[in-house]
C-alpha cells in the first residue's frame, strides 16, 4: 500500500501485511491510537472522495459541494478553526 502506516511481513518475497490486531499487541496503546489515526487518514486519501476537504489543523474532513464556499469550517469540537479553501 502507499503509506507509512502499513507493515509488510519481514520475510523476503512475502507481500502480506501484519493485521492491526498483531500490531496492537506489539506497541503501546498511545502509539497504537496514533497509528489508527494515520491508517484512517491514508484510507480516506486512497478513497479519492470528490470534494473532500480536510482541516489544516486536525484530522477532521468533510465533503464541501459548494465551489463558491471559500471558508472551510472544522466541526471537530477540539479544533473549530476556519480556514481559506
Automatic annotation (TrEMBL):
<dbReference type="InterPro" id="IPR047545">
    <property type="entry name" value="BRcat_RBR_RNF216"/>
</dbReference>
<protein>
    <submittedName>
        <fullName>Uncharacterized protein</fullName>
    </submittedName>
</protein>
